[in-house]
Amino acid sequence: YFGGVVITPIHVLSAASSFYTMVVTSITVRVGSSFRTKGGQVFNYKSYEVHDQYNSTTLANDIAIVTINGSFHGVPNVAPVQLQDHEYFVSPANPVNCFVLGWGDVKPGQLADRLQRSEYILLNHQQCEAKWGPRPTSVQCAQSVRGNACHFDDGGPLMCNNRMYGVLSYFYQLDCENTTTTKIHIFGKIAAPSIQAYLHRKLHHFDLDGRHGKRH
Predict the structure, then answer these.
(1) Of 7, 138, 187, 212, which residue is least crowded by CB atoms under 10 Å?
(2) pLDDT one-digit tens code per residue, 183-198
(3) Do 161 and 82 form a contact (C-beta atoms < 8 A)?
Protein backbone atom coordinates (compact mmCIF):
# COMPACT_ATOMS: atom_id res chain seq x y z
CA TYR A 1 0.00 0.00 0.00
CA PHE A 2 1.24 3.51 -0.83
CA GLY A 3 -0.04 6.94 -1.78
CA GLY A 4 -0.40 8.86 -5.00
CA VAL A 5 -1.89 12.04 -6.44
CA VAL A 6 -4.10 12.64 -9.48
CA ILE A 7 -2.21 14.90 -11.91
CA THR A 8 -4.19 14.42 -15.17
CA PRO A 9 -7.52 12.76 -16.05
CA ILE A 10 -5.69 9.44 -16.50
CA HIS A 11 -2.45 9.71 -14.50
CA VAL A 12 -1.41 9.39 -10.85
CA LEU A 13 1.95 10.61 -9.56
CA SER A 14 3.69 8.51 -6.91
CA ALA A 15 7.19 7.60 -5.71
CA ALA A 16 9.55 5.43 -7.76
CA SER A 17 10.94 4.09 -4.49
CA SER A 18 7.52 2.63 -3.63
CA PHE A 19 7.65 0.45 -6.75
CA TYR A 20 11.31 -0.41 -6.36
CA THR A 21 10.64 -2.35 -3.16
CA MET A 22 8.08 -4.78 -4.61
CA VAL A 23 7.08 -6.91 -7.57
CA VAL A 24 4.02 -5.20 -9.04
CA THR A 25 1.34 -7.51 -10.41
CA SER A 26 -1.66 -5.22 -9.98
CA ILE A 27 -2.47 -1.71 -8.82
CA THR A 28 -5.84 -0.32 -7.81
CA VAL A 29 -6.42 3.39 -7.31
CA ARG A 30 -9.19 4.76 -5.08
CA VAL A 31 -10.13 8.40 -5.69
CA GLY A 32 -12.80 10.79 -4.49
CA SER A 33 -12.94 9.60 -0.89
CA SER A 34 -11.24 10.56 2.36
CA PHE A 35 -11.64 6.94 3.50
CA ARG A 36 -8.95 4.40 2.69
CA THR A 37 -11.22 1.40 2.00
CA LYS A 38 -14.63 2.78 1.03
CA GLY A 39 -16.34 5.49 -0.98
CA GLY A 40 -15.25 7.25 -4.13
CA GLN A 41 -14.40 5.14 -7.16
CA VAL A 42 -11.76 2.46 -7.75
CA PHE A 43 -9.74 2.13 -10.96
CA ASN A 44 -7.35 -0.54 -12.17
CA TYR A 45 -4.01 0.41 -13.63
CA LYS A 46 -3.01 0.14 -17.26
CA SER A 47 0.71 0.74 -16.84
CA TYR A 48 3.31 2.46 -14.73
CA GLU A 49 6.83 3.76 -15.22
CA VAL A 50 9.49 5.24 -12.99
CA HIS A 51 11.70 8.21 -13.82
CA ASP A 52 14.41 6.99 -16.19
CA GLN A 53 17.08 8.63 -14.01
CA TYR A 54 15.78 7.35 -10.68
CA ASN A 55 18.55 6.20 -8.34
CA SER A 56 17.55 3.88 -5.52
CA THR A 57 20.68 4.69 -3.50
CA THR A 58 20.54 8.49 -3.56
CA LEU A 59 16.75 8.71 -4.21
CA ALA A 60 17.40 11.05 -7.13
CA ASN A 61 14.32 11.72 -9.28
CA ASP A 62 12.04 9.69 -7.03
CA ILE A 63 8.80 9.82 -8.99
CA ALA A 64 6.65 7.32 -10.88
CA ILE A 65 3.63 7.77 -13.14
CA VAL A 66 0.69 5.36 -13.03
CA THR A 67 -1.71 5.31 -15.99
CA ILE A 68 -5.20 4.03 -15.21
CA ASN A 69 -7.77 2.16 -17.25
CA GLY A 70 -10.58 4.66 -17.75
CA SER A 71 -10.67 8.32 -16.80
CA PHE A 72 -11.08 10.39 -13.65
CA HIS A 73 -13.10 12.93 -15.64
CA GLY A 74 -16.50 13.48 -14.05
CA VAL A 75 -15.76 11.53 -10.87
CA PRO A 76 -17.09 13.53 -7.88
CA ASN A 77 -14.51 15.16 -5.61
CA VAL A 78 -11.63 14.47 -8.02
CA ALA A 79 -9.49 17.05 -9.81
CA PRO A 80 -5.82 17.12 -10.86
CA VAL A 81 -3.52 18.76 -8.35
CA GLN A 82 -1.52 21.80 -9.37
CA LEU A 83 2.22 21.11 -9.56
CA GLN A 84 4.86 23.58 -8.42
CA ASP A 85 7.10 24.40 -11.39
CA HIS A 86 9.82 26.46 -9.70
CA GLU A 87 11.87 25.96 -6.57
CA TYR A 88 11.42 27.94 -3.38
CA PHE A 89 14.26 29.84 -1.78
CA VAL A 90 14.30 28.48 1.76
CA SER A 91 15.98 30.18 4.71
CA PRO A 92 15.20 30.87 8.39
CA ALA A 93 13.99 34.30 7.31
CA ASN A 94 11.88 32.83 4.51
CA PRO A 95 10.13 29.72 5.90
CA VAL A 96 7.81 27.71 3.66
CA ASN A 97 4.97 25.93 5.45
CA CYS A 98 3.65 22.72 3.91
CA PHE A 99 1.65 19.62 4.76
CA VAL A 100 1.68 15.91 3.93
CA LEU A 101 -1.40 13.76 3.32
CA GLY A 102 -1.76 10.00 3.59
CA TRP A 103 -3.41 6.93 5.09
CA GLY A 104 -0.20 5.45 6.51
CA ASP A 105 0.37 3.97 9.95
CA VAL A 106 -1.15 5.89 12.85
CA LYS A 107 0.58 3.41 15.15
CA PRO A 108 2.74 0.36 14.39
CA GLY A 109 0.83 -2.01 12.13
CA GLN A 110 -2.36 0.07 11.99
CA LEU A 111 -3.19 2.06 8.86
CA ALA A 112 -5.41 5.12 9.14
CA ASP A 113 -9.05 4.70 8.14
CA ARG A 114 -9.41 8.36 7.16
CA LEU A 115 -7.00 10.69 5.42
CA GLN A 116 -4.42 12.18 7.78
CA ARG A 117 -2.62 15.52 7.55
CA SER A 118 0.75 16.41 9.07
CA GLU A 119 2.35 19.86 9.07
CA TYR A 120 5.89 20.34 7.72
CA ILE A 121 8.37 23.08 6.95
CA LEU A 122 10.82 22.97 4.04
CA LEU A 123 14.56 22.67 4.72
CA ASN A 124 17.31 23.94 2.46
CA HIS A 125 19.77 21.58 0.81
CA GLN A 126 22.50 22.14 3.39
CA GLN A 127 20.11 21.24 6.21
CA CYS A 128 19.03 18.15 4.29
CA GLU A 129 22.58 16.93 3.77
CA ALA A 130 23.43 17.61 7.42
CA LYS A 131 20.80 14.98 8.29
CA TRP A 132 21.09 12.45 5.46
CA GLY A 133 24.50 13.08 3.89
CA PRO A 134 25.15 14.06 0.25
CA ARG A 135 21.96 14.17 -1.80
CA PRO A 136 21.17 15.21 -5.38
CA THR A 137 19.31 18.45 -5.97
CA SER A 138 16.16 16.55 -6.99
CA VAL A 139 15.79 15.57 -3.31
CA GLN A 140 13.82 17.85 -0.98
CA CYS A 141 13.86 17.54 2.79
CA ALA A 142 11.12 18.77 5.08
CA GLN A 143 10.83 18.74 8.86
CA SER A 144 7.67 17.82 10.70
CA VAL A 145 6.06 20.53 12.82
CA ARG A 146 2.85 18.82 13.92
CA GLY A 147 2.29 15.11 13.38
CA ASN A 148 4.45 13.24 10.89
CA ALA A 149 4.27 10.90 7.93
CA CYS A 150 4.74 7.21 8.59
CA HIS A 151 5.04 3.83 6.88
CA PHE A 152 2.78 3.47 3.81
CA ASP A 153 2.47 7.25 3.40
CA ASP A 154 5.19 7.06 0.72
CA GLY A 155 4.04 8.32 -2.65
CA GLY A 156 1.83 10.91 -0.97
CA PRO A 157 2.06 14.65 -1.59
CA LEU A 158 4.01 17.41 0.07
CA MET A 159 1.72 20.41 -0.48
CA CYS A 160 3.04 23.97 -0.19
CA ASN A 161 0.94 27.05 -0.96
CA ASN A 162 -1.79 24.88 -2.52
CA ARG A 163 0.59 23.24 -4.98
CA MET A 164 2.32 19.89 -4.90
CA TYR A 165 6.01 20.42 -4.18
CA GLY A 166 7.18 16.91 -3.33
CA VAL A 167 6.47 13.16 -3.30
CA LEU A 168 7.27 11.33 -0.07
CA SER A 169 10.04 8.79 -0.66
CA TYR A 170 9.95 5.22 0.58
CA PHE A 171 12.97 5.21 2.86
CA TYR A 172 14.16 2.54 5.25
CA GLN A 173 14.99 5.23 7.79
CA LEU A 174 11.48 6.70 7.77
CA ASP A 175 11.36 7.39 11.50
CA CYS A 176 7.80 7.83 12.73
CA GLU A 177 7.19 5.69 15.80
CA ASN A 178 7.95 8.50 18.28
CA THR A 179 5.52 11.30 17.45
CA THR A 180 6.77 13.62 20.20
CA THR A 181 9.92 14.63 18.30
CA THR A 182 10.29 16.36 14.95
CA LYS A 183 11.30 14.29 11.92
CA ILE A 184 13.22 15.14 8.77
CA HIS A 185 11.89 13.22 5.78
CA ILE A 186 12.94 12.95 2.14
CA PHE A 187 10.77 13.84 -0.85
CA GLY A 188 11.19 13.86 -4.61
CA LYS A 189 11.24 17.56 -5.52
CA ILE A 190 8.59 18.22 -8.19
CA ALA A 191 10.15 21.57 -9.11
CA ALA A 192 13.61 20.09 -9.78
CA PRO A 193 14.60 20.60 -13.44
CA SER A 194 15.19 16.88 -14.02
CA ILE A 195 11.71 16.02 -12.73
CA GLN A 196 10.01 18.89 -14.53
CA ALA A 197 11.63 17.84 -17.81
CA TYR A 198 10.53 14.23 -17.34
CA LEU A 199 6.93 15.15 -16.52
CA HIS A 200 6.59 17.47 -19.49
CA ARG A 201 8.18 14.93 -21.81
CA LYS A 202 5.87 12.13 -20.71
CA LEU A 203 2.70 14.19 -20.25
CA HIS A 204 3.12 16.88 -22.89
CA HIS A 205 -0.50 16.53 -24.04
CA PHE A 206 -1.76 17.62 -20.62
CA ASP A 207 -1.75 20.93 -18.79
CA LEU A 208 0.16 20.15 -15.60
CA ASP A 209 -1.01 23.23 -13.72
CA GLY A 210 -4.21 21.32 -12.95
CA ARG A 211 -6.62 23.86 -14.40
CA HIS A 212 -7.41 22.35 -17.79
CA GLY A 213 -7.61 18.94 -19.40
CA LYS A 214 -5.17 19.46 -22.25
CA ARG A 215 -2.79 22.04 -23.57
CA HIS A 216 -4.00 24.36 -26.31
Answers:
(1) 212
(2) 889 999 999 999 999 9
(3) no
What Rg, from alpha-carbon coordinates, does the chain have?
16
Q: What is the pTM of this model?
A: 0.90
Evaluate whether 150 touches 176 at the Cβ level (below 8 Å).
yes
Average per-residue pLDDT in the chain? Answer: 88
Q: What are phi and psi of 7, to 5 degrees?
A: -120, -15
CB 119 within 8 A of CB 145: yes
Q: Are 185 and 171 in contact (CB under 8 A)?
A: yes
**How far, CA to CA in Å, does 15 sit from each of 48, 76, 190?**
11, 25, 11
CATH architecture type of domain 96-190: Beta Barrel (2.40)
Predicted confidence at residue 112, as pLDDT, reads 85
